[in-house]
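Lab notebook, bench 4. Still working through the backlog of constructs that have no structural model yet. Next entry is a single chain of 241 residues. Request: give me the C-alpha cells for it.
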Amino acid sequence: MSKYTTGEIARLCGVTVRTVQYYDTRGILTPAELSEGGRRLYSENDLKRMRIICFLRDLGLPLDSISQMLAEDDPGSVISLLLEQQEQTLREEIGERKERLDKLESLRRDLKDVETVSFESIGDIAYTMTNKKKLRKIHAVMLITGIPVTLLQCASIALWLTKGWWWLFAIWAAVAIPWGILISKYYYDNTAYLCPKCHTVFTPAFKEAFFARHTPSTRKLTCTSCGHHGFCVEVAKEEKK
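Model written out:
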C-alpha cells in the first residue's frame, strides 16, 4: 500500500504543507503512521480523506463543520444538513453582494450627473439610494389606486361616444375629483426634497410643489433653508419619532 509524506499529500491535493500540518493539529487528518525518523506518513485512505476535506472546504464549509461530519459514525446523516445550511449561507452572501453591486452601479451612474464630486454630493446620493424603497412604496400606492380611476375614465368616455351614456362620465368625475384631492395630499404628506446646494431635506409649500416644473425624480423649488431655487431631488419623508 502506498505511503505519502506531508509534502506529497499536499502536492496531490493542491494545498500547502502548512495546510496539511494544520489539519493534523486540528485532528481532522492524522497520519496513518510515523516513520523511524519521525516523519508523518499518510495512507491511501488518508489521501481520500484529505481530498474530501479539500472538496468541502472549496464549498465554503467551515472546518468545525467538516470535523463534526468526519467524526460521525454515519456522516451521511449530517452531510445533507450541513450542505443545506451552507447553500442558504451562500445564497444570502450572493444576495448581499448583488445588493452592494447594484448600489455601486447606481452610485457610478449618479456621479456622472454631478458637476463637482464632494463628500456632500456622495452623501446626497447615498441618502436617496437608501430612501428609494420608501419612495417606491409611495409611487406604488398612487399607481395602484389610480389604475381603477383611469380604467373608469376610459370606459366612460368610450360609452359616452358610442352609446351616449354621459352619466357614466359624471360618475367618473365624482370619483376622480375626490381621489385627485386625496392622492395629492397623500403625496405631499409623504414626500420631501433634497436641496443640491445646502444638502438639506425640506418640505415646500403645497401650492409651490403642486405647480412646480418637474421631472420623474425632481421638482424646481425654492429651498426653505438656503433659498436656492432649482431642481431638487424627490425623497420619501422621514417618519417623525
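Notes after review: The CA atoms of residues 190 and 240 lie 11 Å apart. The chain is about 65% helix and 10% strand. Flag for follow-up if needed.
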